[in-house]
Amino acid sequence: MTSQNPFIALKEEMDKLVIGHEEVKISLLLGIIAREHIYVEGPPGTAKTMLAEIISGAAQLKFFFYQLHRDTRLSELIGDLVISKETTDTGEVIKQKVVKGGILTAEICLLDDISRAPGESLNVLLRILNERKFFDEEIPLLTAIATSNPTADEYYNEPLDPANLDRFVLQINAQGLSYGKRWDQAREVIKLYTQRPLEYHVPARVSREVFDEYYKRLGSLDIPHEVQEGLANFVATLIEDYGCNETNSLISDRTFFVKSLKIMRAHALLHGRDACTLQDLNALKYMTVFRIPEEVFLQLDQIIEDLTSKKKKTGTGGAS
Fold first, then answer.
1. Are 72 and 115 in contact (CB under 8 A)?
2. Contact 199, 60 (CB under 8 A)
3. Among the residues of 35-93, which ranges form H helices?
């Protein structure tokens, strides 16, 4: 990233308070740049909520947090439901209106434990997130971060339905430092919290106008032919060499290609580039953790490295 890149400031604020969790930090930045939603799955204590709060404070974005539960009502997410009664010549008329709040007025929101939401509320919520509208009125939302605990038995958590999961373009599997055996980072956390004050104010570093400016640039960012070929060969490799198919993968041709191009452009802007390069294929790691089998995802770094190396050496594409 260059020194003029405004996203460095946001990354700096996250790094001040949260050690590690780079994949969550990068996905948050990509989500805000591209205005796409994010799904983060991870155990308690992996800084999911804290990172969203830091980035909203540093970016001066209106933040909404809600912890979903089995009895979540839609009105709890969109504002207050006001019911009034009027008497007319023909009788009484009951009127209902929404005093907008929650996700209807937020620019960034965190929806904790989204898989616990009842179907009726979840369906309407996802429709609002997808369309960024409430009825015909646009909402100011840039990105929503949905979180969930792992689906292991000890968390008593159900997996998000694949069709609903696919609504979130960016998908991250966050791991704790201790159980991930990241002992150096664990020591850094201990050191950090022995030195920092109990209360810490996140300073404003950028404004909404910055995101509007970068979003205008996003659509016109050049994607050279070799990068386009790299993306096509990436999907071909997953299917032809690693057995991904409609029964084990959430990769639909048009949707995945279109969204991938958008996230790759965001990745280029994040790193201060005016055009995409083969390095931006690395953005695909933030889109695939729950879209392909785990054993394939664990090899993704090597798959991308092989594709980019082949391009550099031969200038041609093609799945191996």
1. no
2. no
3. 48-58, 75-78
State the DSSP string of 202-233: PPP---HHHHHHHHHHHTT-B--HHHHHHHHH
Residues in the chain, overall count: 320
**Claim to verify: residue 256 and residue 162 sit in the same structural domain:** no
Say whether both 224 and 201 belong to one domain: no
Asked whether residue 155 carries a pLDDT value surpassing 60, the answer given is no
Q: Is there a domain that residue 95 lies in? A: no
- Backbone dihedral angles phi then psi of residue 278, each to the nearest 5 degrees: -60, -25
279 or 199, higher pLDDT:
279
The CATH number of the domain holding residue 64 is 3.40.50.300
With contact defined as beta carbons under 8 Å apart, do 121 and 77 qualify?
A: yes
Q: How many domains does the chain have?
A: 2
Q: What does each C-alpha distance from 200 to 109, 206, 297 come to in angstroms?
A: 21, 18, 37
Tens of pLDDT along 71-98? 888 888 887 767 767 777 777 777 667 7
Q: Which of 4-18, 174-188, 226-240 has the lowest average pLDDT?
A: 174-188
**84 domain residue, yes or no:** no
202 with 277, same domain: the answer is no
Dihedral class, residue 45 (left if φ above 0, else alpha if ψ from -120 to 50, else beta): left
Domain with residue 264: its CATH number is 1.10.8
Tell me the residue range of the domain where 275 lies. Answer: 219-314
Three-state secondary-structure class, residue 137: strand
